[in-house]
Design goal:
Elements: H1 15-34, H2 37-41, H3 57-80, H4 98-112, E1 121-123, E2 129-131, H5 132-149
Antiparallel strand pairs: 1-2
Helix pairs in contact: 1-4, 1-5, 3-4, 3-5
């Protein structure tokens, strides 16, 4: 069940974040889908300070998909109640599927945002927790970093 006002488009507390995330998911997934095998296997642009290096563009896409899936799982578990759900594993697929993986996990996160309000506490790891908005923001930052480096 959704939190108060979460599904009402007129009062969607996620509206701005949702629009930006949706655009980045589309940009990154489209870009990854358009790359050749050689480009997917080659390194992306160097990282900015504090961001991790990636051996390939496909690995960067997988990292973004993982963070999107992790945030979606945290929101879904919080919406399910105190017992939550076990986190899903993200399979490692071929380089050609990484664009689809970003699209699917991104859409999962966008859907999960309709389940909880931004200030609801969610668990993003064994001992890490915080507001849902922070989990979404962290995933969006990884996605934006990957977008800039592709």
């Amino acid at each position: 069940m959704a939190g108060p006002g979460v599904d009402d488009p007129g009062t969607d507390p996620w509206a701005l974040v949702r629009a930006e995330l949706e655009a980045d998911v589309r940009r990154v997934s489209d870009r990854l889908r358009s790359l050749s095998a050689t480009r997917l296997a080659s390194p992306p642009a160097p990282p900015e300070q504090y961001w991790p290096p990636y051996e390939s563009r496909a690995q960067a896409g997988r990292a973004a998909a993982f963070e999107l899936a992790r945030a979606a799982g945290a929101l879904e578990a919080a919406a399910a109640g105190p017992l939550g759900r076990e986190p899903r594993e993200l399979p490692v697929l071929s380089d050609f599927a990484v664009g689809d993986q970003v699209a699917v996990t991104g859409h999962d996160l966008l859907a999960a945002m309709g389940l909880v309000p931004p200030d609801m506490t969610v668990w993003t790891g064994a001992i890490e927790h915080g507001p849902a908005a922070q989990a979404v923001s962290d995933a969006a930052k990884v996605l934006a970093d990957v977008r800039r480096r592709l």
